[in-house]
TrEMBL record:
Keyword Transferase on entry: yes
Protein name: 4'-phosphopantetheinyl transferase superfamily protein
Pfam families named among the record's database cross-references: ACPS
Protein family: Belongs to the P-Pant transferase superfamily. Gsp/Sfp/HetI/AcpT family.
Domain 4'-phosphopantetheinyl transferase: 109-193
GO cellular component: cytosol
A GO BP entry: lysine biosynthetic process via aminoadipic acid
SUPFAM superfamilies from the UniProt entry: 4'-phosphopantetheinyl transferase
Keywords attached to this entry: Plasmid, Transferase
InterPro entries noted in UniProt: 4-PPantetheinyl_Trfase_dom, 4-PPantetheinyl_Trfase_dom_sf, P-Pant_transferase_sf
Amino acid sequence: MRKTEEIQLCYADLHGLAHRLEAFRALLSPDEAARAARFATEELRTRCALRRGLLRHLLGRATGRDPAALAFAYGPMGKPSLPGGPAFNLADCKDHVLIAIAPHETVELGVDVERLRRLPDAAGIAERFFAPEERDAFAALPDALRDEAFLNGWTRKEAFIKATGQGLSTPLDRFAVELTPGRPARLLSLDGALEAGTAADWSLFDLHPAPGLVGALVVRGDGWRPVFRPLEDAFSA
């Protein structure tokens, strides 16, 4: 096993960043500003500007570069990257934002976050999208654990397809994750046709950025340690 390296994680409730809206808007590229402006409501426009502004601010801190001057590149399926900077990934759920920043550019990682809630349609969604072993594990659980189990599975699967850069072009039933509450997060199986290596090539981590949230981090390789940094540290001198 190689030397342990950290994945830096930052969680934010966007309500707490509202006072930085204009400063963050000033960091956006013309394309980003136009994208934010296309949302139908002011609430959605504000969320978009705050998310992207926070990402630029954090990457500027990590690289020592002007956050407004950062130029992103995009993979074939739209995954953003920062040439010459660290790998990163962003997940959001309404006003909740989670950003992961790796120590260097070549790291393959993905994050996802969801609000823990009642999900009346969980069984139907699992039947449609989950792998057979995931469906079996889900069906064997008591009702009291099924919402958490479903969100465990969903966030881990979303984080994985974000880490590979293939996004929703990846059939979700072609790989399986552990979803049973209380068991360690891990990749159980991976179809070789996905060309993403083997299940053993990936590290999965449970994330609990705030009460009532379920999250996951997926990173290729081993020796990783996720570390949450207080949001206020990002704005200290």
